[in-house]
Amino acid sequence: MMASKPVKKNPRLASGRKRARQTIKLNAANTSLRSKYRTAIKNVEKAVAAGDKTKATELFAKAQSVLDTIADKGIFHKNKAARDKSRIAAKVKALALAA
């Protein structure tokens, strides 16, 4: 049995229609940023797994800026961004110490 999406009613009021349009735009922007965040994290972790210290540090710097941007925009909580940065920094540092 397939679950289908619930059918949404169109808003009657102009303000409701405008809010629906805004929601679609905001959702697309947030989805894009969330994807950029996941890609940045994944790239750093791949570099760490490969043992490439210079590439990992370079990608970590880029990932930091992406994390800060996402936290500033409120897509993720600032504490989550800080926690993720800390965990990645620990992995990069461990790689640097091992080499």
What does this entry look like structurally?
By secondary structure, the chain is mainly alpha-helical. The protein has one domain: Up-down Bundle (Methane Monooxygenase Hydroxylase, Chain G, domain 1), CATH 1.20.58.110. 80% of the residues lie in helices and 0% in strands. It contains three helices and no strands. The protein has helices spanning 14-50, 53-73, 78-98. Helix 1 runs antiparallel to helix 2 (53-73) and helix 2 (53-73) packs antiparallel against helix 3. The mean pLDDT is 92.
What's this model, at a glance?
The chain has 99 residues and is mostly helical. It has helices at 14-50, 53-73, 78-98.
